[in-house]
Design goal:
This protein is about 60% helix and about 5% strand. By secondary structure, the chain is mostly helical. Among the domains are: about 90 residues, no CATH class; about 260 residues, P-loop containing nucleotide triphosphate hydrolases (Rossmann fold, 3-Layer(aba) Sandwich). The longest helix is centred in the last third of the chain and has 22 residues.
């Protein structure tokens, strides 16, 4: 059976190469090599393809390697680097680029090797050290991450982001820790720009919360959020309108008409509000031997963005005029995208919290897809958003308590609608149940996903896969319940806002 799957993947790879879809074809070929399937034969195909496409030539070209990475042609870049290994290993830039390539391809050991070689060749290159430090943090090697963060701090003390990341990685045991003092003094430095100051304020808020100095913590959280909120725009009316349009068009009768009849689907969608526990749930599930952890996959958002209309809110046609044809197109697009990540695992996770908006679309295209909705105490959840710095601006509501509550209420009403339509086809995982009764709740999740118990899930904190969310450090720790009712320490600041929560 496995050989049939692999043979089909090889045929698919060859067809993609024939259709001039080089990166896609090589991704599947590369996966087959990792499975030790016809390694010599497939490697020869890869080499011939790269020579034919003039990616490999007689003179190693660093610009070409960089261009492939910028185009996200990571497998092409991997084999170009490997072919010119002797030359490239003499260049810190080439080694740094190789680390990025292998990181993107989730080949963690090789990424570590080449990042460390790059840093050794060019130890004062802050760009390399910043990337390496963030990479260590993403795989849970906090000892190495802290070393790198401290190196950057000593050589570039104004880097606010570095201070914040260091504060997320190390433990602080006393108020007069030298790093705390350093940041408090740095806040008044006239050379510090707004973004650097926002990062430092979030760092101090987090540190003082962990030290149980809640008054000080609240002060810095408030300063950070107020400044961040001034540079972002959140349009609650637009957000509400989009959700209303989707729910109107994906009503129960329409979904029944649209649903595709397909074999058992591979997708495990883990969704909910940010900071609800979705990263923890994915870390646990992806530790199972039959599950590939996909992380926050952009495929649904990418499809919707590339199929927007030309006027008004530019709503994608699949949301305003769903049809069998565009559902089929989306189905194929998404499946092809996840196959390029991993084709042989029983399931693959997609942990994009905001996918709660698209449940009607998801269940139309993948009727048998497993959906795990992670729920957390609403006040704890909103507070956790308020105290977090998000790496991109998509969570524009997250820095104003009023906007957080508004967005949470839209989410709550949306999930009520989907739950009414799909009922027990959506598993509701309560964060508090997972924390207080780990094995029982994990067993329930696995049963919902048609997965047998796997002892690996008990050691989820040892899972070294790359995690790029705010929770990257927290999910490397054993289960703890200190975050339950944590909002109460900020009751005076937030209670009036939270009264509006539905």
């Amino acid at each position: 059976m496995e050989n049939n799957i692999e043979q089909n993947q090889l045929l698919k790879s060859r067809q993609l190469l024939k259709d001039d879809q080089v990166e896609k074809g090589l991704r599947l070929a590369d996966q087959l090599i990792k499975q030790n399937y016809k390694v010599n034969e497939i490697y020869l195909v890869i080499k011939k393809t790269l020579i034919k496409k003039k990616i490999i030539d007689k003179k190693p070209n660093l610009f070409k390697l960089e261009k492939l990475i910028n185009n996200k042609d990571f497998v092409c870049a991997k084999y170009l680097f490997s072919h010119n290994l002797k030359v490239y290993t003499k260049s810190s830039k080439a080694l740094f680029l190789a680390g990025t390539v292998f990181s993107e391809l989730n080949e963690i050991d090789k990424a570590i090797k080449f990042y460390e070689m790059a840093a050794k060749l060019d130890p004062m290159n802050i760009k390399i050290r910043k990337t390496v430090s963030a990479f260590y943090m993403s795989i849970g090697d906090l000892k190495k991450a802290i070393y790198e963060f401290n190196f950057i701090k000593d050589n570039n003390p104004l880097d606010g982001e570095n201070h914040r990341l260091l504060s997320r990685s190390k433990k602080y045991f006393k108020e007069n820790d030298p790093h705390i003092t350093e940041m408090e003094i740095l806040r008044s430095n006239s050379e510090l720009n707004k973004e650097q100051r926002i990062n430092i304020n979030f760092a101090l808020g987090n540190i003082f919360e962990n030290l149980k100095l809640y008054k000080k913590s609240a002060k810095y959280y408030e300063l950070a959020n107020k400044e961040q909120d001034t540079r972002l725009i959140y349009d609650s009316k637009k957000e509400k309108h989009i959700v209303e349009v989707i729910i109107k068009n994906y009503n129960v009768n329409k979904i029944k008409q649209l649903q595709l009849v397909r074999e058992k689907n591979r997708q495990l969608f883990i969704l909910g509000m940010p900071r609800s526990g979705t990263s923890l749930v994915e870390q646990i599930i992806s530790s199972h031997s039959d599950v590939f952890g996909g992380g926050e996959l952009p495929f649904i958002e990418n499809y919707l963005l590339s199929n927007r209309g030309s006027i008004g809110l530019r709503m994608p046609k699949i949301l305003i005029e769903p049809s069998k044809e565009n559902i089929e197109e989306f189905h194929n697009y998404y499946n092809e995208a996840i196959d390029l990540l991993n084709y042989n695992k029983k399931y693959i996770t997609d942990k994009m919290p905001g996918n709660f908006k698209w449940i009607g679309l998801i269940k139309s295209a993948f009727p048998n897809a497993k959906i795990i909705h992670v729920i957390r105490d609403k006040k704890d959840n909103c507070f956790s958003i308020y105290k977090s710095y998000f790496a991109n601006d998509t969570c524009s509501y997250a820095y104003n308590p009023k906007n957080i509550v508004n967005y949470f209420n839209i989410y709550t009403e949306t999930m009520k609608t989907w739950k009414k339509i799909f009922n027990d086809e959506i598993y509701e995982c309560k964060y508090e149940s997972l924390v207080n009764d780990f094995e029982n709740e994990t067993q329930n999740i696995l049963e919902f996903c048609d997965l047998d118990w796997d002892n690996n899930v008990k050691n989820y904190f040892d899972n070294k896969r790359k995690v790029l969310t705010v929770s990257s450090a927290q999910i490397r720790e054993k289960i703890y319940n200190s975050s339950i009712n944590s909002w109460m320490n900020y009751k005076n600041k937030l209670e009036d806002y939270f009264k509006e929560l539905k």
